[in-house]
Each structure stands twice: as C-alpha cells, then as structure tokens.
Fold this protein.
Amino acid sequence: MTATILAVLLLLLPSSALPAEAGNLLLYPFARMFGSPSESELAKCRQAFRQWQARPPSCLVCVQPVLWVTPHRGGPTRSYRLDRANALVTRLEKLDRVRLVLALDPPTVAPDPFERNQLRYTWKRAATYAKYTAQLHPAESYVLFTEVWGAGANVAAIQIYLVDASGQIVYCRLFNSHQFGPNLHLKGPTWLDFLVPVLLRDMEREPEELFPKYGVG
C-alpha cells in the first residue's frame, strides 16, 4: 500500500521535482512485481555486457538451436530447430570480433511456464539458461539462446539471451507485437528480418540502456 501511494504521488509531481534515480527507486517495487530482476542482478548484467563489448577478436559464441513454439489445440508444440539457428548464424556474420559456432544438439532444459507475463517468463528463462550454461562448462566464451513463440500463423513473442561461460546473463531481451506489429509471419525469414537488425544495434548500446537501473526505463 505504501509503495502504491508513493507511486501515485510520483505521477502527480512535475517531472523536474525529483531526480530521475529517485523516481526509478520509487517505481522499483512495481518493476520487481512484474518480473524485473533485482538491482544487484541488473548491475551484474551491466558489467557482463561491458565485458562483452570489450571482447577480444574472434571471440567464440555457441549458437543453440532455436526453440520454436507453435500453437495447437492440445497445447503448444516445442521443437528445437537447427535450421533456424543456422539461418541466424548466417545473418549474424556482420557481428564484429565474433566467431559463431553452431551447436548440433539442443540444450537439455525443462520448459518454463509462459503464463501471461512475458517479462517474468523471460527473466525466469534467462536464469534457467544461465544455470544450464554454468553446468555445461562450454568451450566457447558465450552461448546464445533464441526462442520464437507463435500464435496462429504469426509470431507472438521472441526471447533472446546471451550468457557467458560462467553462467552470467550478458544480454536478455523480449519482443512482441508492440515492437514488430501483429503480422510477423512464422513462415519464412521475417522473424530474422526483424530480430537481427535490432540485435546488432543493441550490441552497440550502453549497458544502462539495456539494463536500466532498478529495472525502470
């Protein structure tokens, strides 16, 4: 209740009345409630992303088969698509100072419930992949995981994760119709046409943009 009152008061104040960080701190409980990780975890992600941006030449990245989830009456069908991962590798050849290695076998991780909160799912799934990577001890410096969820003939959601070999989350993004519109087709390369340019731009962004302080931004 106290957090709610503070948030309402914050919304009523002029934008110049409080420093931005103070406002973010007041909204922090709401970010956590909706699935954002703790500030301490976000700080680790920011540092890991800085290290990724300072990577040496020919840094090895293992690209996992894409988790492809399609709707059916009896429940969604999950399959790991090596062909989709191969297409992603081809598109990511423009990524600087990286050597991409295609994993032939899918990650052995149990599914996490999507429910109705994509943000909560994305971070929970990131933790699942991070734990798997830490236990895997990959030869590569980083592992890339991608998920595409369908609804009817179109893409409903995309999640993409970059995890370092120790199991630390480096990059974690979710996308849905707010970013790519209602008509991104599951068939064909349209999901790549959307995802790859965004991913390449993100790699040049500041860590604080991708992982805003207190999860607000």
Observations:
- DSSP finds eight helices and seven strands in the chain.
- The first strand starts at residue 59 and ends at 63.
